[in-house]
Specification:
By secondary structure, this protein is α/β, with parallel strands linked by helices. It contains 15 helices and 14 strands. The protein folds into three domains: 168 residues, P-loop containing nucleotide triphosphate hydrolases (Rossmann fold, 3-Layer(aba) Sandwich), CATH 3.40.50.300; 91 residues, Rossmann fold (3-Layer(aba) Sandwich); 110 residues, Rossmann fold (3-Layer(aba) Sandwich). The strands form three sheets. A six-stranded mixed β-sheet has the order 2-3-1-4-5-6, sandwiched between helices. A four-stranded parallel β-sheet has the order 8-7-9-10. A four-stranded parallel β-sheet has the order 12-11-13-14. It is globular. The chain binds iron/sulfur cluster.
Amino acid sequence: MAKVPRGERLVLTLIGKRNAGKSSLINAMTGQEISIVSDTPGTTTDPVAKAYELLPLGPVTIYDTAGIDDVGDLGQQRVKKTRKILFRTDVAILVTDSTEVDEDLETIISDLKEMKVPFIIAFNKNDLNPLPKATREYCKDNNIAYASVSGTSGDGVRMLKEKLVTLVPSTLTHENNLVSDLLRPGQLVVLVVPIDLAAPKGRLILPQVQVLREVLDSDAVGIIVKERELEKALAGLSRKPDLVITDSQVVLKVVGDIPPDVRFTTFSTLFARYKGDFETLVNGAQAIDNLKDGSKILIAEACSHHTQADDIGTVKIPRWMRQFTGKELIFEKSAGNDFPENLEEYDLVLHCGSCMLNQIEMKRRIMECQRRGVPISNYGVTISKLHGVLDRVIEPFFMRSR
Ligand code: SF4
């Protein structure tokens, strides 16, 4: 199976009470022994993720989670972890061995609805408890997708998978453009990629690889240079490039080398549109103008990594923000899957490029900020704003291919 980046896979999550048969159902769905199946309630303690090619859906990540009725302090921590997984879930499979939609199930359903997570109920163990007509009618009357299944015999699992396909939000099933809608075959694209201390050894980072791949898929011509070689590279071309895409960190240096009539943007701006909500992230950057002494800014990164001496999130952006605003600002950082619950305490959230997040997770993070009235932007858009080039880097999206 070709390796698909984590952020490009659909995320399916099985949730339900302990011993509802989540683990055996996951194994029946995938035809593999992914999860430990045991009759002892609470065998799955932490969410278990597995990448899988699930036809007809394609590449998915399936999460098996701890029982939502887990008890004790540790149990509550596990339930919290399950909620976090739901934040990045495209479709939830609510597994129950009950034959009716009882009060507990209704509570989970209302949580999922509030979180805007599409779901299907898998009434499991139908070999032991066939699903009564009243429950089927209840689901139909309430517009709830359901399937009667047996994780042990595999009965109904195919139907479950077919129904799952119909629940995947259409925004995820249609191909999103990273850059291809800005290009025509034969056009010339220059990619500017600094190789500094922060660059990984011996390879390019995922956003650069994905953009380069789309340039090639568009039958355009891609040229890749470091910022120091850019001037020489441009001088050696027989015509002006049709588009220049740069790493945000060197946007100020690079913009000076690009003729004003050449379309110019950054990798982060492309990702703001591809993964997030472009307008919200651009508007979020305007909130920088309203920051005051003591304003609190959350620097949110989707993975934890070793902090470099001149780290973009914790060193460069805070420095540029203080210079730009002239204010005493307070910066706090969150990393990994933990998006803080006290968001309303912040005046602005600045998110990383989110290359490792799926679209839904980034959109839910944006939604959470909107719900609490906190502006959110991403690193690249913010850096362009701080360097006074935001209008220039967003212009190509309003001009399209020419
Ligand atoms: S911190 Fe953000 S931008 Fe950096 S690799 Fe992780 S997801 Fe991608």
